[in-house]
Amino acid sequence: MKGKKGPYKVILSEKEVPTSWYNILPDLPAPLPPPLHPVTREPCTPEDLAPLFPMELIKQEVSEEGYIEIPEEVLAIYKLYRPSPLHRAYRLEEELDTPAKIFYKNESFSPPGSHKPNTAIAQAYYNKIEGVKRLTTETGAGQWGSALSLACKFFGLDLKVYMVKVSYEQKPYRRTMMETWGAEVVPSPTDTTNAGRAALADDPANPGSLGIAISEAAEDAVTHEGSKYSLGSVLNHVCLHQTIVGLEAKAQMEKFGEYPDIVIGCVGGGSNYSGLAFPFMQDKLKGKDVRFISAEPVACPTLTKGKYEYDYGDEAATAPIVMMYTLGHKFIPPAIHAGGLRYHGDAPILSLLTNKGYMDAVAYPQTQIFDAAMTFARTEGMIVAPETAHAVKCTIDEALKCKESGESKNILFNLSGHGLLDLGGYGEYLAGNLVD
Length: 436
Description:
Blueprint: E1 9-10, E2 20-22, H1 46-49, H2 55-62, E3 67-69, H3 72-78, E4 86-88, H4 90-96, E5 101-106, H5 117-129, E6 134-139, H6 143-155, E7 158-164, H7 165-170, H8 172-180, E8 184-188, H9 194-202, H10 210-222, E9 227-229, H11 236-256, E10 262-266, H12 271-284, E11 291-297, H13 302-305, E12 307-312, E13 321-326, H14 348-355, E14 360-364, H15 366-377, H16 386-405, E15 410-415, H17 423-430
Parallel strand pairs: 5-15, 6-7, 6-9, 7-8, 10-11, 10-15, 11-14
Antiparallel strand pairs: 1-4, 2-3, 4-5, 12-13
């Protein structure tokens, strides 16, 4: 290694774990359009949402408090894996021969290996204290399903997971994780719900989508007493819980003596990127010069090719209608390995910030993101999830732009999950079998 290096990582103490989540809603540059009832198309009331969610999460969905205190019971479980490290990617910088400084927040340290428990633990807790006995949910690649399975085990809740069929078949070990923590997992679409039967009637070989799985899980929840539905991305309260990532990163960047010029994350529904970005976006909204870039798949280009309009959150058009970038709620994406980035829409807050010009977006084909993931694995050592690989690809592109211009910029991205259960995708890549 050339030259003298500073620290490779900054790790906060457990006493420095943030005790509140940051709520960006009161700081937004424009009011967030309200969700609409799927039948009346009038703004949803708390009573409309109550069959799906506990009241405390409904309150968080519209809260105007700048910071919301994290319950002690949630913090106690967070400390199993939080705070997570912030790394300086010296070896990647040297490989790219770039003057840029590259930092990554490493969320792979949680028991399921991703950022998802940050909201899963909170959601399970709020359901538990309101007397809920059972949760239903969907999952794409399996990161969310495994995180909620863990959280439900900690709080003594039953869980049924509708896993997108193509991921159910591609990623059996994610299913094993969920079942290890006590969840029931089924491939979606199923023949046990109206939504699933309708999807299969249209296409018996339907590979599934997050939109269909959401429809099935929501239908299950509202037709079973003592059940509620839990969503792992998109909604305001989910993005809120993830801001612990960005709040920690802010404190760690200060300890490095740096501040990011560019903040990057992969985007499917938007929770991991929102979690990293929003605490820094707070500074941008106050005038600080920071660039934000969302990285998504060409196969599901919601922010780069979608329309900013009201659309249903699920395939069966039973979930609330929200203002977001969307490819249409009937969109069935190709069976790419980045299963967590295959949702037809995006988080309303992230969509608004993109529409107003506060965030940019780029899209990549899967061969390019695996190229980037290999570079990262062979320099930094970490094998990342295909979802995270989109952020790695964007980071490498921005670092190479710095090489061309000679300008040094601080680039921060969220390593939102490891790829140890995605080695099948890496095997396909190494064998030359992946196509765009």
